[in-house]
Amino acid sequence: FFFRAAPPLPMFLDRICSVCLDAVQQHRGLVLKTLGVGLILRFVVPSFRRSLEAQAGKNSAEKQMQLPSGAHAGKNSPQKQMEVLSCIRARRSVFPKSHVDRAVKPEIIRSMLEAAMWAPFHGPRPPWRFVVLGKSAMVEMQKMTLAYYDANWQEVGWAGGKRGSESQYYEWRQQTEEEITGRWGRVSFMIAIVMLRQAGSTRIPEWEEMAATACAVQNMHIQASAFPGLACYWSSWHSAARDSTKMAEFLGMESEDKCLGFFIVAACNPDLKDSRTRQLESHMHVEWRD
Which of 28, 90, 183, 201 can bridge 179 by disulfide, Cβ–Cβ 3.0-4.6 Å? Predict the structure, then answer.
């Protein structure tokens, strides 16, 4: 109808228009379908897509405002209990023979210390203090340990109270000095574990403060299991040097505070085999009473 409403055309154009109109009349259904698809692609699909994008944005905003999925399950739900138990089971001590030369990032240490912060304690303040020793500070602490034994080995012994001749002491000393770059060379951090003795006229028993500090260390160790390839264990260190005034000065301790050793943090193979076993018959001593 467009062509018929237009001014007269040359004969060859008029012939072309006639052929086109005849084709449209013969294939009217196909033409209408084509026009319909074109209209859908032009107007309906973009509108539907905009609607979907708007709904997706709304859902995303609502999801960000929701509590974590674990919270909906409930603190005491079987699923939540299994998650916690899995973390506890994954906690293990990995010793220097399994360490590899790979640095541990400070962010991991901060995460572990945050976990320690949530340990239980009595009183107005927590009874723990941690001193994080990096590479240089670790070497300094070990040299201080050797200097202490050089001056006191005849009175306190060495290696946990062992006593003997001067030549035996210097044999042990040489081995211990070599460990600075050997056994401890792949360690990224040593975290000194200090129990702060509460001051005041009414004080909490010391054993409770030591127990609370141990809980904080356990929290650190459990959190360490969240990082594959992280190797940790609690070292009691060389006892005489650990309990000495030299160590107290080095760590900035008060007179009644106690150093409980060092939490060793290094790296290991993420696929390191876990050879531990736990059995109710031998590892669970419990008595039930009505």
Answer: 183
